[in-house]
Design brief:
The protein is built from three helices and no strands. The chain is mostly helical. The radius of gyration is 19 Å and the shape is elongated. The N and C termini lie far apart (39 Å).
Length: 112
């Protein structure tokens, strides 16, 4: 799960609220220029946190799988949930990368 810059878990309701609040950023030119320097670093921090969370989930699922295989744990349900969460997180990260590459390619195809 991707976490916000405040390191609290984000759910769909908070993501929706964040998107609605971002809609007002473009309305004022002074707000956009004053927040320009910090928005880039906030995005970078958010991206780093997201990658770290996906990495952590992958490690946890691997540990849960190894514990199940070695007999340290007998709870297959939690192991399967951990693996599914890690897989979804990784797939989301891959799709984000694909969208970023696609956007870059669209910009490069633009005629000046």
């Amino acid at each position: 799960m991707i976490r916000s810059a405040t390191a609290k878990p984000m759910d769909l309701g908070s993501i929706d609220a964040d998107l609605r609040s971002m809609g007002g950023l473009g309305s004022s030119k002074s707000k956009a220029t004053s927040a320009e320097g910090t928005s880039e670093s906030q995005f970078l921090d958010l991206l780093k946190d997201g990658i770290a969370d996906v990495n952590k989930g992958m490690r946890e699922s691997e540990k849960a799988s190894m514990d199940l295989a070695t007999g340290k744990s007998s709870n297959i349900h939690e192991t399967m949930l951990s693996v599914a969460k890690a897989e979804l997180g990784f797939n989301m990260l891959v799709q984000m990368r694909n969208k970023a590459i696609e956007a870059y390619q669209d910009v490069m195809r633009m005629q000046v």
